[in-house]
Specification:
The chain is 38% helix and 21% strand. The protein is built from 15 helices and 15 strands. The strands form three sheets. Strands 1, 2, 3, 4, 5, 6, 13, 14 and 15 form a nine-stranded mixed β-sheet that branches. A four-stranded antiparallel β-sheet has the order 9-11-7-12. It has a two-stranded antiparallel ribbon with strand order 8-10. Helix 1 runs antiparallel to helix 2. It comes from Alkalibacillus filiformis. Keywords: Hydrolase, Manganese, Metal-binding.
Length: 438
């Protein structure tokens, strides 16, 4: 480890602890332990600029899982690892039955931060540590889970671990993938002692999972604007991706009069400018983004003959997302007619959103009130998570922790230790409430 990285690791821990209120450590929850564990994970993938490079199926991710397994064993959890490399730490309950599961992932994007994923794992583990330190037991079994490959940086996919658990993985399609180095899927797995067949064998009996709860940084600014440590997620938006192509007539920029042009870029520009207006007509949680645009022939002195762009549309309810999508498609046709261009629209992706059940939202809100004395704040998740995959099959909930400036997938990603610990109190009470129903 270089001296620069050693300094970054130390700076990370010091920053966590410098403004931490030690009065937040009580009832078995230990903020200093949380800081040490977050720092130990940060060290495994720390870059010289303070970011994180711990991509899926790397030795860094493998070592991070081994470290969490060690902590689980030290805390008395029964540890198992499935064929997809997902790690589970089980605490037996006062009575037997389906488990309450909580956790997240340890892999990162290519150049990310140290909270997206690890905070969910450490939060779930801290709940079990607190029970141990106070000689408590949950009413029903509890499992801490570390999912494999949530981010998908290795194969430009993601969520492989959670998809394996629910039995959704299309193994034949995955076998066709190569990573960013051109290494085939099976060879990448072999480097971390996994096999493709293991991902199929990882399927769980989901009748034995009572609920899944995931803690995650917000990836937005709503909590920060309200000075709240934690929020209750109402649903996870599923994306629809539209490929929209406006086709005009390419021509010489100097010799084609302005009144005799069919400029595809002018039409596309009007479309792009107004796409933002459609989500707010339908819901408060909907969004639409044009993030990619290709111009042909793309010459300085040539009128654009064709423009192809993508629209990423998301909302937490299927009917809302479908309505936004429908309005945007109709608008593309209207713009095309007005400018005399042709338009082609393809739907390249359509992932269904997942709602957090009302009862789970209610219990999470009650946990916020009971532990922190705050009125719960409810907000949607615009990004996908392992909870989205589990939520198709079992009751699911998410808690968001305040994130500085809403930054995510970036070395500047940061959540204060005070906010992290307060979220853990909410998580602990929440999973206890779920278990007490049994």
């Amino acid at each position: 480890m270089s001296e620069q990285i050693k300094q970054q690791v130390k700076a990370f821990y010091d920053r966590l602890m410098n403004d931490y209120d030690v009065n937040n450590s009580h009832s078995g929850i230990d903020g200093e332990r949380v800081a040490k564990r977050l720092t130990a994970l940060a060290e495994l993938g720390m870059t010289e600029d303070g970011g994180c490079r711990r991509v899926s199926f790397s030795q860094e991710e493998k070592r991070a899982k081994e470290l969490v397994k060690q902590w689980m064993e030290e805390d008395g959890l029964a540890v198992t690892v499935d064929g997809a490399g997902n790690v589970f730490g089980r605490v037996e309950g006062k009575v037997d039955g389906p488990v309450v599961m909580s956790g997240s992932h340890l892999d990162s994007v290519m150049h990310g931060g140290h909270f997206d994923g690890p905070l969910g794992v450490i939060s779930a583990l801290e709940v079990a540590s607190a029970w141990r330190d106070t000689d408590e037991k949950p009413h029903i079994p509890y499992e801490v889970v570390v999912f494999t490959d949530e981010e998908g940086a290795r194969f430009n996919g993601g969520l492989l671990g959670s998809q394996s658990v629910v039995g959704e993985l299309d193994l034949e399609e995955e076998k066709k993938r190569v990573d960013f180095n051109g290494t085939p899927f099976e060879d990448v797995l072999a480097n971390v002692d996994l096999t493709p067949e293991g991902f199929i064998e990882a399927k769980r009996d989901l009748s034995q999972v009572k609920a899944f709860v995931e803690v995650h940084i917000e990836q937005g600014k709503q909590l920060e604007k309200r000075n709240l440590p934690v929020g209750v997620v109402t649903g996870i938006a599923g994306p629809t991706w539209l490929k929209v192509s406006f086709k005009g007539v390419a021509g010489h920029a100097g010799n084609t009069p302005m009144n005799d042009r069919t400029d595809a870029l002018v039409a596309a520009s009007e479309f792009v400018t107004n796409v933002k207006d459609f989500p707010v007509q339908v819901s408060e949680s909907g969004v639409a983004t044009v993030g990619k645009l290709e111009v042909e022939p793309n010459g300085v002195n040539v009128i654009p003959g064709e423009v192809t762009l993508t629209v990423d549309i998301r909302d937490i309810k299927e009917e809302w997302k479908n309505e936004i999508t429908s309005r945007i498609k109709e608008y593309a046709k209207t713009v095309s007619e007005q400018h005399g261009t042709a338009v082609e629209i393809e739907e390249n992706m359509n992932v269904s959103p997942v709602q957090v059940p009302d009862k789970m939202q209610q219990q999470a809100g009650e946990a916020v009130q009971e532990t922190l004395g705050l009125e719960p704040f409810y907000l949607p998740s615009g990004a996908g998570h392992d909870a989205m995959i589990l939520g198709r099959y079992v009751p699911m909930a998410m808690l968001f922790t305040q994130s500085l400036d809403g930054v995510s997938h970036n070395p500047k990603e940061w959540s204060s230790l005070n906010d992290c610990v307060q979220t853990i109190y909410v998580l602990k009470r929440f999973v206890e409430k779920i278990g007490e129903e049994s």
